[in-house]
Amino acid sequence: MTTVAVKPATMAQALTRAMRDAMAADPSVHVMGEDVGTLGGVFRVTDGLAKEFGEDRCTDTPLAEAGILGTAVGMAMYGLRPVVEMQFDAFAYPAFEQLLSHVAKMRNRTRGKMPLPITIRVPYGGGIGGVEHHSDSSEAYYMATPGLHVVTPATVADAYGLLRAAIASDDPVVFLEPKRLYWSKDSWNPEEPATVEPIGRAVVRRSGRSATLITYGPSVPVCLEAAEAARSEGWDLEVVDLRSLVPFDDETVCASVRRTGRAVVVHESGGFGGPGGEIAARVTERCFHHLEAPVLRVAGFDLPYPPPMLERHHLPGVDRILDAVGRLQWEAES
Amino acid sequence: MTVMEQRGAYRPTPPPAWQPRTDPAPLLPDAEPYRVLGTEAAAGADPELLRRLYAELVKGRRYNAQATALTKQGRLAVYPSSTGQEACEVAAALVLEERDWLFPSYRDTLAVVARGVDPVEALTLLRGDWHTGYDPCEHRVAPLSTPLATQLPHAVGLAHAARLKGDDVVALAMVGDGGTSEGDFHEALNFAAVWQAPVVFLVQNNGFAISVPLAKQTAAPSLAHKAVGYGMPGRLVDGNDAAAVHEVLAAAVRRAREGGGPTLVEAITYRVEAHTNADDATRYRGDAEVETWKQHDPIALLERELTERGLLDETGVERARQDAETMAAALRAHMNQDAALDPMDLFAHVYAEPTPQLVEQREQLRAELAAEAEPEGAQ
């Protein structure tokens, strides 16, 4: 038996492949955004799509995010399946009125007569040394908007599987791409038929008995690293990768917390009004009698995203996560 | 080489030749709003079309009056009347083919009804039993859009998608003078022109954005002039002249259909009523101004033309009035029945499949409703 060495793909390449496969399978899939055509996107995630499918299928739009999403709404009304790229997290804000007032509500407003199958890809989060307006964690805004699905991959395989699922969904999906993981590689094999992951299911990335780290997107690798480091402290940490913020997988999260009895939520987004508050409340409401300690949060500080030379002090790191784990009232056990 | 020596060696060449990318002259609107009624152009107007416009205008005026009355009776939550603007409302609906799409704003219920949507379904939003009462795809009428100008990029996207699919479909999008200040107005017109999308933008300049007059809204020579900056033609029309509005819109629709791209039409009209029943127009404008506009009434203008040309007699006027009364009576009868409401509908159309969280909340409401239905004191 011979094994063929497959060059591992990056998350960016897996995302490209997902769009390419979706476009090949369904002529109604259209990619649109700023610089997505000739250039292939500022992160090259749409590389080659305009060349392969033509500029009518992968379109360089004028530079106007509300216009991009607004016209995508009209295209979806006519039966197309637009995949919109917002160039950066903080550049997506001009499109919020279209997103909140139309994209999220159209199915509901029309009693299901006019669903909008739009995928909105948003590179988000920090850690790449970006200057201001290039590193926001905007997921809480999307989560707070009923009618949207909010999804974020942490692995190369999930980037492919979740983006295929997002494009196939008949509901609008905000697809948050952790931009610092664009160049990450893992065991996903682009030559293998890839699986489409269901939206709404979390996954246990690392099994453990002592406590659960609940996290998503860019913080998943950080939590896995923290879990490895925690072994020397005698803690065996479980890491749950949410993958989907909306719908939220209470079942997987709570099953883990009931096993371990302790939980820390980890994300880059600010803590106050951030996703961690909702997650901690849900876990407490459902697992109160299994908890040995309050659910803690390790989040970005509640401040505008810092300049690149200071961002490492802001982002949740291994030490801050381990500090939180250390505060989970272990003495109560002895 | 020193800097000075470099400068000496520098041989400037002119940059690539510049020229305007399109000739702006044909895009400019005329100095005066285009008029048909009472002018020589009227002789060329199709008598059948004029009669049809008249019948619809009379019905439209009655619809506005009936809806306003229903508001006072508590049967509608609110009604933004288009009284005085019926010519624009009716012409916008009649100018389209069945396969075309209409994108109305919240004041355009009349256009929606003139397009063929059931008058009761068209009022669902304002009655408050749901948001959109009609099936947009069945009538090719987008939901009435309350956030100003946000429906314009939808029209552009839909027209663009239709063209990509090779379908002969034009989108007509309606917006008011206030809406032209919104960013979405700008972005929609820009996208439409860049994509050469088959779309027509109809701005009803009715003088006011709630209380704010046009002078505080824009410094442009006219709203139609804004078209030039996008590279599309701007057209100015008397918005109370139904024949003129229809003719200008028909030309724009034809142009879009033939691949000529988008057109911006500004119709000069006047909002005779207050913004809605909840507004007090006396706080920001005088009766004299309103009276002046009432002397340029769209129904009276058309009626005079038809009468003078012998196309309408007293019997015809009476028949139009009777038809309008019949419509109003039917509307009253429907609206005086309580709307059928099912609270469980709240959860039915948030997503294709409800999330687990919504399933929990739905069951919570179901239990609350069951408890409410229990007779008093029952165990």
From TrEMBL, chain A:
The keyword Repeat is assigned to this record: no
Q: Which domain of life is it from?
A: Bacteria
UniProt cofactor(s):
thiamine diphosphate
Question: Keyword annotations for this protein?
Answer: Oxidoreductase
What's one Pfam family the UniProt record gives for this protein? Transketolase_C
EC numbers for this chain: 1.2.4.4
A single MF term (Gene Ontology): branched-chain 2-oxo acid dehydrogenase activity
Task: Name any Gene Ontology BP term.
Answer: branched-chain amino acid catabolic process
Q: Which residues form the Transketolase-like pyrimidine-binding domain?
A: 9-184
Asked if the Swiss-Prot or TrEMBL record annotates the protein with the keyword Oxidoreductase, the reply is yes
Q: Fetch the SUPFAM superfamilies from UniProt.
A: Thiamin diphosphate-binding fold (THDP-binding) (SSF52518), TK C-terminal domain-like (SSF52922)
Protein's name in the database: 3-methyl-2-oxobutanoate dehydrogenase (2-methylpropanoyl-transferring)
Organism, by scientific name, is Streptomyces toyocaensis
TrEMBL record, chain B:
Domain of life, source organism: Bacteria
* Disordered: annotated segments: 1-26
Q: Which InterPro entries match?
A: Alpha-ketoacid_DH_E1_comp, DH_E1, PdhA/BkdA, THDP-binding
What CDD domains does the record point to?
Answer: TPP_E1_PDC_ADC_BCADC
* Single annotated GO MF: magnesium ion binding
Q: What Pfam families is this protein classified in? A: E1_dh (PF00676)
User: Per the database record, which ranges form the Dehydrogenase E1 component domain?
Assistant: 64-325
Q: Which cofactor does it need?
A: thiamine diphosphate
SUPFAM superfamilies in the cross-refs: Thiamin diphosphate-binding fold (THDP-binding)
What are the protein's UniProt keywords?
Answer: Oxidoreductase, Pyruvate, Thiamine pyrophosphate
**Matching NCBIfam families:** PDH_E1_alph_x
Q: What is this protein called?
A: Pyruvate dehydrogenase
- Which species does this protein come from? Streptomyces toyocaensis
